[in-house]
Each structure stands twice: as structure tokens, then as C-alpha cells.
Write a structure and sequence with these properties.
With 63 residues, the protein is mainly alpha-helical. The chain has 3 helices and no strands. Helix content is 71%, strand content 0%. Helix 1 crosses helix 2.
Length: 63
């Protein structure tokens, strides 16, 4: 989000972070939490998805 700000707004954010250590610490915590969440976010392998689909087809009723 920071990178999407206009240059003037980025400078304002940087100044605020320099003058408010609590804000800087909170932002750092949020960035670390986001990095951790990004690291655990995964998608199933294609083989896993295919196995689930094959298994689900066993529930189809034959009429």
C-alpha cells in the first residue's frame, strides 16, 4: 500500500514513523505478521485437487 502512495504522502508517512516509535513498532509488527501469513498461504497441488475431484465422483448416484 505504501508503494501506491504519491511521493509526498510517502514522505509524510516516513516522517510520522520517525517521530512516533509506537507507530513504527506497530507497523513493523504488521509487516512481520503479513510476511508470516504470506509464507503459510498455499494452494493445493494439482495432484491433490485431482484426487479430491476423483473421490467426489464416487458420490454421484447412478440413476
Amino acid at each position: 500500500m505504501y508503494n501506491e502512495l504519491p511521493a509526498e504522502r510517502q514522505r509524510e508517512v516516513e516522517e510520522a514513523l520517525q517521530h512516533d516509535p509506537d507507530l513504527a513498532a506497530t507497523c513493523a509488527d504488521l509487516l512481520l505478521a503479513q510476511r508470516a501469513l504470506d509464507g503459510v498461504r498455499r494452494e493445493p497441488r494439482p495432484e491433490t485437487s485431482e484426487a479430491i475431484l476423483r473421490y467426489s465422483r464416487t458420490f454421484l448416484s447412478k440413476s
